[in-house]
Amino acid sequence: MKDRAYEPLSCENEVRCIIGQAVIELSENQQPVTKSTLALKLLSMADQDQDDERVLLY
After folding, report:
1. What range does the domain containing 41 cover?
2. Exposed (0-12), middle (13-18) or buried (19+): which is 41, by Cβ within 10 Å?
3. Which of 4, 12, 34, 39 is spaced 20 to 30 Å from 22 by Cα?
4. What is d(CA 20, CA 27) in angstroms, rounded to the nearest whole number?
5. What is the structure's pLDDT at 1?
6. Nearest to 31, CA basis, from 3, 40, 14, 15
7. Whole-number pLDDT of residue 11
8. Cα separation, 14 vs 58, whole angstroms
9. Which residues contact 45 (CB under 8 A, 6 or more apart)?
């Protein structure tokens, strides 16, 4: 039972880390952080990973 409660939190933290990484990379490239640029960056990161399960996180 504890594993089920922990799993969504772990997944949620992973999503936050991915979004944070995308924001940092956009900022480093001096690109504006908007919904559009963030969505494109996340799609780009998903494409680079080539991991079908993680694509859902992106």
Report:
1. 2-57
2. buried
3. 4
4. 11
5. 43
6. 40
7. 78
8. 10
9. 18, 21, 22, 58
Scanning the structure block, which residue is given the tokens 């940092």?
24
Predicted TM-score (pTM) of this structure: 0.71
pLDDT at 58 over 70: no
How many whole angstroms separate alpha carbon 46 and alpha carbon 55?
5
Q: Match 């409660």 to its residue by tokens.
A: 5
The pLDDT tens digits for 3-55 are: 555 555 677 888 889 899 999 999 999 999 999 999 899 888 888 877 666 66
Count of domains in the chain? 1
